[in-house]
Amino acid sequence: ATAAAAVPDPTPVAAFRPPPTTPSATRHRAPVVLIVQDDSAERQRLAQYVARFGCGALEAQRGQEALEILFRNSVDLVLMDVKLSDMDGFDVTRILKSQPSLEALPIVLMSDRLDRNRFAFGIQSGATDVIGKPIVLESMVTRMWDILAHRGFIPPAWSELLTTSLRDALSSETPAPTSAVRPRPS
User: Fold this and answer.
1) In Å, how far from its chain's centre is CA 119?
2) Rounded CA gap, 131 and 113, in Å?
3) In the prediction, which pLDDT does 97 show?
4) Share of the chain above pLDDT 70, in %
5) What's residue 21's pLDDT?
6) Sheet holding 56-60, edge to edge
7) Mean pLDDT over the full length of the chain
8) Bridge partners of 80?
9) What is the 3-state secondary structure (H, E, C) of the chain?
10) What average pLDDT does the segment 114-142 reach?
């Protein structure tokens, strides 16, 4: 009889957790997205696109560099390639999720080979989502803002619309009625 090799228990699927509550004052700033990608041209392209759609962008080329940035900076979302030169995105995600100060940080993994197993493994590792490559930029930004909106951030178009509506309402020449009772015309 041969002894069976010890197989570690699979990581359980993360249970739904409501978004963390933070002071609303932090939501008036642009969210910061860390882009972790070892291909510099792709990383810069993603950073420019993220910045164009209302977010600050930080960049990391390797997993270890991403960890260092995350322990030193306030980041609101991580967009990370699965294939990195020093460790894979799944490992970086598990390390981040093991840290109490970073466990609520949303992480979107990018994978060139996206199937059911890889998607499930990414979610089990702690990722918020796993998206396929090549990246469709419009879809990525939409998904990114869905996640950020869930955390309380307002996408730029909504923010501009709210600001314009409020400014128009405040500058209106017609004063708002002070009472529901109107005087009768004489």
Assistant:
1) 17
2) 10
3) 95
4) 69
5) 43
6) 56-60, 32-36, 77-81, 107-111, 129-132
7) 79
8) 36, 109
9) CCCCCCCCCCCCCCCCCCCCCCCHHHHHCCCEEEEECCCHHHHHHHHHHHHHCCCEEEEECCHHHHHHHHHHCCCCEEEEECCCCCCCHHHHHHHHHCCCCCCCCCEEEEECCCCHHHHHHHHHHCCCEEEECCCCHHHHHHHHHHHHHHCCCCCHHHHHHHHHHHHHHHCCCCCCCCCCCCCCCC
10) 91
Q: What type of residue sits at position 159?
A: S
Whole-number Å distance between alpha carbons of 128 and 123: 6
| pLDDT value at 184 more than 90 | no
What tokens does 37 get? 């990608």
Tens digits of residue pLDDT in 66-90: 999 999 999 999 999 999 999 999 9
Dihedral over Cα of 38, 74, 55, 20: its sign? positive
By CB atoms closer than 10 A (0-12, 13-18, 19+), residue 66 is buried
Contact present, 122 and 133 (Cβ < 8 Å): no
